[in-house]
C-alpha cells in the first residue's frame, strides 16, 4: 500500500499516495464534496436525534440552540476523533516533513475505542458506525489504499473522515469545519422535513452555529493523541438518541 502522505505544499493528493485515483484534485474541492448532502454515504438516514427531540418537548424555535449545544458537545468529540485520526496517519516530524504511520490499523482501533468511551449512547455509536460504513465505500473508491486501513465494520464516521483527510491532504482546521458543518446541516435538513418552516431560517441557523463554533476550531485542530479527544457529555442528546432508536414510526433512523 502507498504511504498515507498528502502533498504538503500544494494540499493535493501526491502521486503514489494511497493509490489515489483522483491525482491533483484540490483539497478545497474534496472538502466541498465531503460537505455535500448529495454524497452517497447514507447521511440522509440521520436527523442527529432532532426527530426525537421534537417529539419530546423541543420546539422548532429551539432547534438553533440545539445545533449550538451539539457544537459544544457531540461535535467536539467527533471533530477531535477525526483530527487525531488524521494526525496519527500522517505524523509530522520536527522539520515538518510528513511520513506514514507504521501501524495505521492499530492506531485506528485505539482512536475508535477512545471515541466510543466518549459516546455513551449505543444508538449514537451504532449510527456513527453505519454512516462510517457508507462513507468508507466512497473513501475506498477514491483511494483504494484506504481499504487496507479502514475495517469494513465498526469504524465510526469521524474516524473515516480523518482517514480521508490524511489521504487527501485536507488541513486539520478544515477537517474540523467539515465535521461541524455536517452536523448542523444534518439537523437543518431533518427539521425541514419534520416541521413546516422557511428553509432560509434553517440555513441561517447553520451559519450561526458554525460561526459560534469557530473559536474552537484552532484548538481542536492541534490534537494529536487519542487520549486528548474531548470528553464533552450531552446527557439529553444521548437520551433523545436512545428514544429515536425506539420510535415506532419515524422518518429517520437516528
TrEMBL record:
Pfam families per UniProt: UreF
Domain of life: Bacteria
Protein name stated in the entry: Urease accessory UreF family protein
